Amino acid sequence: MSFDPRISFFAHGDSKCLPEVSPEFIQAATFKRAKCRKYSPFASERSRIGIVTAHFGEGKEHYQMAFQTHLFHSLVHGTEVRVMCDPIVDDLWNKPAYILDLLFREMMKPEKERLEWIQWVDRDTLILDQCRPISSFLPPEKGRRGSWWRRNDGQKEEQQGQANTTHLLVTEDWNGLNNGVFLLRVNSWAIELFTAILAFRHYRPEVDLPFTEQSAMEQVLRTEQFRDKTRYVPQHWFNAYEGGAAQLFEDREDEEGLKQFQARRGDYLVHFAGHNRKDQAIRDWKSMLDQSGDVWEGHRVQRDVSPEIETFWKGLGYGG
Which UniProt keywords are present, listed alphabetically (predicted)? Predict the structure, then answer.
């Protein structure tokens, strides 16, 4: 299966924040996909997933380097990328505004053509494991498993999940909600959620929002209308933070001293939230990743969250 980035990658706005995708980059992703298929344990799934992010303002090389890891992951797995290149409202409120705009656009499409899920990623995130599909974090559903990597056609239908009531997967850190990375189902519930987030500062001006739109999202998710379909999952699933320098991540032989939320080999992503030398950290990690071998091929995985994910969803009644 081949991918045309002109079809898979979409930039919104007049500025050019989407980097050029060279034939060599596409070829490298094709080679990586073959490696993932051979060495990793993941079954790619059929979900129509979009990676959504924003890269407006002054272009900075380290953010472009981080963005390339997401573009590469998209090519490996056949997902779409939507990037906001120009602001449409003020400051950090562009994030919910852009997501809401995207949701409206998707919901106008026929159901079989629209995205099923979006994964929002802040621009200070890097993919660590290019083999893990985004769909691996989602609750089990009928019809999603099996594609060009592996097929699970023999899986019993009754083990493929109940009628789904999960529409949002988020994580928390010591400050509460961190919405630097989250997974959102594309539906009318999502439109209502992001309408409420975007409007919150206007209809509840007395509420302190120390982290602007993130705090508004946290407040809205506490309400009866939205809390029941939101799942707070362990932070290290898809929003791990740095647990030391890049080379230490690559070289360490054990996990001594690492907290649960800190990245280790086998994790999906690292997020440099609040890092005081973000530019240098991203450069160092990108350089290290470019020189590293595949952790699955080299049997160097320190943490595979797949059993934990399966247990989590089974505990909520999914997956038999």
Answer: Glycosyltransferase, Transferase
